[in-house]
Design a protein that fits this description.
Elements: H1 15-36, H2 44-49, H3 56-66, H4 70-93, H5 97-118, H6 125-137, H7 143-166, H8 189-198, H9 202-222, H10 225-242, H11 252-279, H12 287-314, H13 318-324, H14 327-332, H15 334-349, H16 362-386, H17 391-401
Helix pairs in contact: 1-4, 1-15, 1-16, 3-11, 4-6, 4-10, 4-12, 5-6, 5-17, 6-10, 7-10, 7-12, 8-9, 11-12, 15-16
Length: 410
């Protein structure tokens, strides 16, 4: 099929999608900051010593209940939904969707690889590009096939945990890796991480970031992130097919039920998970660990869907639109903002900036995340006032369609 003509009308933007991306982007920063700060590698005693406010335990429970896992789930859902929107647009314009989407994924993978190696090992873009290839393959699957696959994929982490437990496998990230230099005296792993990422040379930072990247992918396998993300991709594709966000007024009963069940059931499930997970490590396997994983596998997508439905319903009121409006420009340049958070948080915690890794408690990290949003939200609004795309989105679009696209608003 030929590429769409340069003057083909763009499909109308779905306002709720931009706002949902913006909300998810802001929530992800609050979750990611504790990886940047190094808080996640502290042992309980050293973490407690950094609790300047006496609020870290409660803040961690609240964050685990309300934020952890929910916003990357929303982002994953929106990725699948976005592919459905692109597929519909390509079919309308007679474009070669296979070529465009494949090129789009390759570019996303390149951005993700550069991000993971040069900015932050906690990158998710490379995983999205990999799983996006599977999403592309099943784009024409029947609705009932998608529904079954969604249920299986979202519950698969429970079976994965049982297998891990049955094989007697430990938490693979608990054992500290060997130091790069055999002559280096043994140090606590956390100290090695903090020195390598926060107080070393650029080469030290790169070496430790690559080590962190390896651990990141071990964690993605260990926690069954692959089926979780792919399940939300498929759910997003199914939602787009149903036209729920294209015409929310026609699906008000479904949206209302989803918000009520997602929040009403998902919230207590996530609170129970947060309480269980704070009591003891999930691995090696145990009955309490299995219960925690089960609560999370069911509760996380439920609460994420509750958030999505609640936001869509809130946009039907003038007060809701006013309250959520600041998230629109953040969502319109979500990829640029995702990379910008790595630049800003890296400037605070890594050796290329202030080198504050390992020095902040959990509550302090939340305050840093809030400060980053104070920068990103007005900056996004200012940028989108004059430009049609975020800077990275603009480049991604040009490389995908292989033609120059005006950046400034007409």
């Amino acid at each position: 099929m030929p590429a769409p003509p340069a003057n083909a009308p763009a499909p109308p933007r779905i306002d709720a999608l931009d706002i949902l991306r913006g909300v998810a982007m802001c929530g992800i920063i609050f979750a990611n900051v504790h990886v940047f700060s190094g808080w996640i590698v502290h042992d309980p005693a050293s973490a407690a010593a950094l609790d300047r406010w006496g609020t870290d335990h409660v803040a961690h429970l609240v964050e685990r209940t309300l934020l952890e896992g929910k916003f990357y789930s929303i982002f994953s859902l929106l990725f699948g939904l976005g592919m459905g929107v692109q597929l519909r647009s390509a079919e309308r314009n007679g474009a070669d969707f296979a070529a465009l989407f494949t090129r789009r994924l390759w570019i996303l993978a390149a951005i993700g690889l550069a991000h993971a190696t040069l900015l932050w090992a906690g990158d998710i873009l490379l995983l999205y590009a990999m799983l996006g290839a599977i999403l592309f393959r099943v784009r024409h699957a029947a609705d009932h096939t998608l529904q079954r696959a969604i249920v299986v994929l979202l519950l698969l982490p429970i079976a994965w945990y049982v297998l891990w437990w049955g094989l007697g496998l430990p938490d693979l990230l608990n054992a500290p890796p060997p130091t790069a230099d055999a002559a280096t005296p043994a140090e606590p792993f956390a100290t090695q991480v903090f020195n390598g990422l926060g107080r070393g040379s650029a080469l030290d930072w790169l070496r430790w970031n690559l080590l962190w990247l390896a651990g990141r992918w071990v964690d993605l396998v260990q926690t069954a992130r692959f089926p979780k993300v792919l399940g939300m991709f498929l759910l997003g594709l199914w939602i787009e097919r149903r036209g729920i966000l294209r015409d929310p007024a026609a699906h008000l009963p479904l949206l209302t039920r989803t918000a009520a069940i997602g929040i009403g059931v998902g919230l207590p499930l996530n609170a129970a998970f947060a309480w269980l997970a704070s009591d003891a490590p999930l691995l090696p396997g145990s009955p309490s660990g299995l219960l925690a994983v089960t609560l999370s596998a069911i509760g996380t997508p439920l609460l994420a869907l509750g958030y999505v439905a609640g936001i869509v319903l809130a946009l039907r009121s003038s007060a809701g639109r006013l309250l959520l409006a600041p998230f629109r420009p953040v969502g319109r340049m979500a990829l640029s903002n995702y990379l910008a958070q790595s630049v800003l948080l890296g400037a605070v915690f890594y050796s290329r900036g202030l080198g504050r890794i390992g020095t902040m408690g959990f509550t302090d990290g939340l305050l840093v995340a809030a400060a980053v949003l104070v920068v990103l939200i007005p900056t996004s609004a200012l940028w989108m006032r004059y430009f049609a795309y975020g800077p990275v989105e603009w480049m991604w679009r040009q490389w995908t369609y292989r033609r120059r696209t005006p950046l400034r608003r007409r």
